[in-house]
Amino acid sequence: MAASIFTAVPRAPPVAVFKLTADFREDGDARKVNLGVGAYRTDECQPWVLPVVKKVEQMIANDNSLNHEYLPILGLPEFRANASRIALGDDSPAIKENRIGSVQSLGGTGALRIGAEFLRRWYNGNNNTATPVYISAPSWENHNSVFVDAGFKDIRTYHYWDAAKRGLDLQGLLDDMEKAPEFSIFILHACAHNPTGTDPTPDQWKQIAAVMKRRFLFPFFDSAYQGFASGSLDKDAWAVRYFVSEGFELFCAQSFSKNFGLYNERVGNLTVVGKDADNVQRVLSQMEKIVRTTWSNPPSQGARIVATTLSSPQLFAEWKDNVKTMADRVLLMRSELRSRLESLGTPGTWNHITEQIGMFSFTGLNPKQVEYMIKEKHIYLMASGRINMCGLTTKNLDYVAKSIHEAVTKIQ
Ligand SMILES: Cc1ncc(COP(=O)(O)O)c(C=O)c1O
């Protein structure tokens, strides 16, 4: 037999966060805790099907008018319109002026990918691989790969996290924007920055927008946690809405994985805000071409769930209540962890645990301390020191706090 034609294929490294979960599953220790994966867990450490989602799924199952025909290439119209509406707000000037459009996508990742592909083909001239794309340091690790795979050659980082201060490096960020070539693309986390849990304040966003406007920088918002940061959809969309009110043309990638708990249904939306309807329609016509060769047309189940929920005032209210349940549990775990570390007298300051928002917290644990947590304590977290607050429960808080205390005091 001839040798395989795949002999020369190198083995790619595993995706860190999925590898961590696989290691966690294999760990037989009863004390084990998974603080790695980016998904909500109840206080019983279980995945949560939102009650409103369960209800709407049953409505869909009982609706004999529905079928499994292909959706349009750009997706379910009522999903797209409602998804963009919650990002931009009911009285968005851009919606009123009919200068927005959207593309249903396979999760937030799909929205980023379609947006990136479009920008590479059409933004600021054709086949535009040389435009710098700026990603926060640090960021969700997939941002870099999505833009590389879309063909961008000049991916850069912008200052974001000040490790010493355990907060936002606003000056570093603004300096990088001042220095960036005009028309550079900036990926901005709309809220609940992953992995640091640190967002600019409204006043800081205003400063960021002012520089971006003056320097002709393109904002590409990634909104994966609307509702999760504060419990309020409006508060968490403040930055995107402010940029729209300032007249920016922008993209906003939305994920409904977290705020609807629809991780495996792959529900996302890419909102395009342009100067006028004509520009937006031409952009969408090109996006349709990209979708056609990527997934041809999107799946319907998740989009139907979201569209049905968002278009009924009663279901919408129930959903907001469900989102608040999740956000409140995260906030409670933050204050409980902080108070335990402070009463243990763990060296360092721990106010950042409650000041950070969203699912994640950047603990400040260094890679050796993380290794200690995993190897000795069976507590799984990312090498960066990022923990998912939803992995904490009233039952494991004491154990996690004591383990962090030990890691910080024993390992430098
Ligand atoms: C910042 C950020 N963007 C995008 C995504 C992707 O979301 P989805 O799972 O819907 O593709 C995630 C998921 O973890 C994320 O944290």
UniProtKB/TrEMBL annotation:
- Name what cofactor the protein needs: pyridoxal 5'-phosphate
Write down the EC number: 2.6.1.1
This protein's record includes keyword Cytoplasm = yes
**Top-level taxon of origin:** Eukaryota
In this chain the Aminotransferase class I/classII large domain maps to: 31-404
Q: Name one Pfam family in it.
A: Aminotran_1_2
Question: What chemistry does it catalyse, as a reaction equation?
Answer: L-aspartate + 2-oxoglutarate = oxaloacetate + L-glutamate; L-cysteine + 2-oxoglutarate = 2-oxo-3-sulfanylpropanoate + L-glutamate; 3-sulfino-L-alanine + 2-oxoglutarate = 3-sulfinopyruvate + L-glutamate; (2S)-2-aminobutanoate + 2-oxoglutarate = 2-oxobutanoate + L-glutamate
Q: Which CDD domains match?
A: AAT_like
Q: Name one GO molecular function term.
A: phosphatidylserine decarboxylase activity
A GO CC annotation recorded here is:
cytosol
Ordered alphabetically, the record's keywords are:
Amino-acid biosynthesis, Aminotransferase, Cytoplasm, Pyridoxal phosphate, Transferase
Q: A single GO BP annotation from the record?
A: oxaloacetate metabolic process
The listed locations are: Cytoplasm
Gene3D superfamilies membership: Aspartate Aminotransferase, domain 1, Type I PLP-dependent aspartate aminotransferase-like (Major domain)
Summarize the subunit comment.
Answer: Homodimer.
Q: Which family does it belong to?
A: Belongs to the class-I pyridoxal-phosphate-dependent aminotransferase family.
Task: Kindly give any further remark recorded in the entry.
Answer: In eukaryotes there are cytoplasmic, mitochondrial and chloroplastic isozymes.
Protein name (database record): Aspartate aminotransferase
